[in-house]
Amino acid sequence: MSNFGKRTVLVTGAAGRTGRIVYQKLKEKSDEYVTRGLVRTEESKETIGGAEDIYVADIRNAESLIPVFQGVDVLIILTSAVPKMKPGFDPAVGGRPEFYFDDGAFPEQVDWIGQKNQIDAAIAAGVKYVVLVGSMGGTKPDHPLNSLANGNILIWKRKAEQYLSESGIPYTIIRADLAEVCIQALKFEELKFKAFDLASKPEGRGTPTTDFKALFSQVSARF
């Protein structure tokens, strides 16, 4: 089938928990989208099938992103620093676990510099729309997540959100890890230049929405 008329969508962080789902869901919609994935290592590439449309690049290195972004229409940013638990914690003993970030993988480097590099690469390549998946709590500097390994992860994520909101490129910021919303965000103009927090009722309560146009039309916040 020809790719004429299809939008090319790049999913970064495609080997992550949510990124993997978004990448796979888009691949299932091959009649609508040409899908690319971006991962950091060859090992990560193999974990999601090793297809030719999966690129390996370092988001902290702006130059490495240039060839990946050529011809991309839509960017979905799903990269994130990941805290790791220090070994030795025993819940039976009590206390709180301690966390750390790998060298070079602190939130400032991944969630700020890495996301800024992606936004800049998108602008340079003429990308028409960016979906950024962040985290709830970014407006609260004293949020407990910021204390993990002294990473200030939500503060850096918020900084990237602000950078995107001021970039001029059409965007949607989703502060949740729901893959389906990322896909639906590609379809409706109502969500461009908007930012919102997303939550759900406990499992078994209520009926999941199928009218995303109506849901997105309720969003009024731009940042």
UniProtKB/TrEMBL annotation:
One of its GO terms (molecular function) is oxidoreductase activity. SUPFAM superfamilies: NAD(P)-binding Rossmann-fold domains (SSF51735). Residues 13-176 form the NAD(P)-binding domain. One of its GO terms (cellular component) is chloroplast. InterPro entries: NAD(P)-bd_dom, NAD(P)-bd_dom_sf, SARED1-like. Pfam families: NAD_binding_10 (PF13460). PANTHER family: NITROGEN METABOLIC REGULATION PROTEIN NMR-RELATED, OS05G0110300 PROTEIN. This is NAD(P)-binding domain-containing protein. It comes from Dorcoceras hygrometricum.
